[in-house]
Write a structure and sequence with these properties.
By secondary structure, this protein is of the alpha/beta class. The protein has 2 domains: 172 residues, 3-Layer(aba) Sandwich (Rossmann fold), CATH 3.40.50; 91 residues, Pantoate-beta-alanine ligase, C-terminal domain (Pantoate--beta-alanine Ligase, Chain: A,domain 2, 2-Layer Sandwich), CATH 3.30.1300.10. The protein has 10 helices and 9 strands. The strands form 2 sheets. A 6-stranded parallel beta sheet has the order 1-4-3-2-5-6, sandwiched between helices. It has a 3-stranded antiparallel beta sheet with strand order 7-8-9. Helix 3 links the parallel strand 3 and strand 4. It binds adenosine monophosphate. Adenosine monophosphate binds next to helix 2 and strand 5.
């Protein structure tokens, strides 16, 4: 397994693969890898000849009062996990390598970045799209794998790939969960045992919404009402948003008719967690 900390090293590795006609799959991550990330790596390995994983805590997607500094990092463990999965390249630049002094060009995020998480995290998707476009230009993957746990992120990236005529396919991958139902996230490391237990209210709320839909309920108000009520019952939780949006432009849905993303963001103590499901009717 190659480990590249500079853009030049990473380009050299993928150039040699490309010269052999190998198909490259990219899994962009911020590291502190868990089974969710590993499921993306497995999918990439199944569909591509070589897998590259980027490990980069991207400063431009964090707001000034967010957790960039304290975001968990464990490169030794990440590289062991990647090696065990047969990953061909880890690209792990320092922020100054990706954003050298004078770096001034950013991707302007589309309208679908403004709702949901975009409301409380202005600039977040601009940072995500910028770093992912840079990774695409550096590594030139044929395929790139993203988790639907970050559904809005996936839809924004898909739009960028379409709008900018990028030469690759982005692949959405299902959310990996603990047996309790809690979606795996590097940020779960922030939770105390008590908070982790409280975090189960996200799963409970989404399950409630799904069972209402299964029973035939289609009114957004009722479905989101059930989510809000479930979160309100957990003393350690405070709801940031619960929304139902169609999966094209991510505009609000009053009545469930077409494919709909039901997404929530909940603060458990100091930790912000997100989760969602997609209803396909
Ligand atoms: P992150 O390191 O949190 O930026 O995540 C890197 C990639 O892994 C993103 O495409 C995420 O959507 C994906 N991911 C994170 N958590 C999960 C999960 N529980 N299941 C599936 N994919 C995930």
């Amino acid at each position: 397994m190659e480990i590249a900390a500079t853009v030049a090293q990473a380009k050299a590795v993928v150039r040699s693969w490309r010269s052999h006609g190998l198909k490259l799959g990219l899994v962009p991550t911020m590291g502190y890898l868990h089974e969710g990330h590993l499921s993306l790596i497995d999918r990439a390995a199944a569909e591509c000849d070589r897998v590259a994983v980027s490990v980069f805590v991207n400063p431009t997607q964090f707001g000034p009062n967010e957790d960039f500094e304290r975001y968990p990092r464990d490169f030794a463990k990440d590289s062991k996990l990647c090696a065990a999965k047969g990953v061909g390249l880890i690209f792990c630049p320092e922020p100054a390598e990706m954003y050298p002094p004078g770096h001034a060009t950013y991707v302007e995020a589309p309208a679908l970045a403004t709702g949901l998480c975009g409301r409380s995290r202005p600039g977040h998707f601009r940072g995500v799209l910028t770093v992912v476009l840079k990774l695409f230009m550096i590594l030139e993957p044929d395929m790139a794998y993203f988790g639907l746990k970050d559904a809005q992120q996936f839809f924004c990236l898909k739009k960028m790939v379409e709008d900018l005529n990028l030469n690759l396919t982005v692949v959405p991958c299902p959310t990996v969960r603990e047996s309790s139902g809690l979606a795996l996230s590097s940020r779960n490391a922030y939770l105390s045992a008590e908070e982790k237990n409280a975090a189960l209210c996200l799963t409970k709320a989404l399950n409630k919404a799904e069972s209402l839909l299964k029973a035939g309920e289609r009114r957004g108000e009722v479905i989101l009402g059930a989510i809000k009520e479930t979160i309100a019952q957990e003393p350690l939780a405070s709801l940031e948003y619960a929304e139902a949006v169609e999966t094209g432009q991510l505009t609000e849905v009053k009545e469930f008719v077409t494919e709909t993303l039901v997404a929530i963001a909940v603060h458990i103590g100091q930790t912000r967690l997100i989760d969602n499901f997609i209803w396909r009717g």
